[in-house]
Amino acid sequence: MAVREILVVPDPILKQVSTPVEVVDDALRALMDDMLETMYHAPGIGLAAIQIGVPKQVIVMDLAAKGETPQPRYFVNPKIIWASPESVPYEEGCLSVPEIYDEVERAAQVKIRYLDYHGHEVTELAEGLFSVCIQHEMDHLKGVLFIDYLSRLKRERAVSKVRKLVRVA
Ligand code: ZN
């Protein structure tokens, strides 16, 4: 496993649309292992492959609270097959938009279908933080960032803040 570099805005790679994975094999599991290690190292609760420059439909996540046993989760080719009509606001952040947080409204619940670490198909109902996080990560697969939901002014301000942050780092 290796920690990879996380791309930050305004890197144009983050706008790329990711393609479906054809087969869940050892090479893909190695990618998922690297993604998980990169996410834990950041630290963050979710990461899409495009954030390390790989345009594949792969997401890793761990929503366990600090001090709890880690609960790594893997989502390959995820699809939303149902979304609740009710939406909820949540203050989101993103490893590709460091130190920026803002409220985004998303479906309160979504039913998702994906392949897991072993390539088995899973259908699951996501609620609460899980629902927010999977919708945020699935947006990455379409080249969409949470700041794309904000006003143009807020978005431009966020990108210039990140530029400054990266310059001094
Ligand atoms: Zn993100």
Describe this structure in words.
- The structure is a single chain.
- It is globular, with a radius of gyration of 15 Å.
- The chain has a single domain, classed as Peptide deformylase (Peptide Deformylase).
- Helices cover 28% and strands 30% of the residues.
- The longest helix has 17 residues, at 152-168.
- The protein contains three helices and seven strands.
- 33% of the residues are buried.
- With 169 residues, it is of the alpha+beta class.
- The strands form two sheets. Strands 1-2-3-6-7 form a five-stranded antiparallel β-sheet.
- A hairpin with a 5-residue loop joins β6 and β7.
- It binds zinc ion.
- Residues 94-96, 136, 140 line the site of zinc ion.
Features:
globular; 7 strands; 169 residues; two-stranded antiparallel sheet; alpha+beta; Peptide Deformylase; single chain; binds zinc ion; five-stranded antiparallel beta sheet
Summarize the structure.
With 169 residues, this protein is of the alpha+beta class. The chain has helices at residues 26-41, 128-141, 152-168, and strands at 46-48, 58-61, 73-83, 87-94, 97-107, 109-115, 121-127.
Say what oligomer this is.
Answer: single chain
CATH homology-level superfamily: Peptide deformylase
CATH architecture name: Alpha-Beta Complex
Number of strands: 7
Number of helices: 3
Under CATH, the topology is which?
Answer: Peptide Deformylase
CATH class: Alpha Beta
Average pLDDT, all residues: 97
The unreliable regions are: none
Classify the helix fraction into a percent range: 25-40%
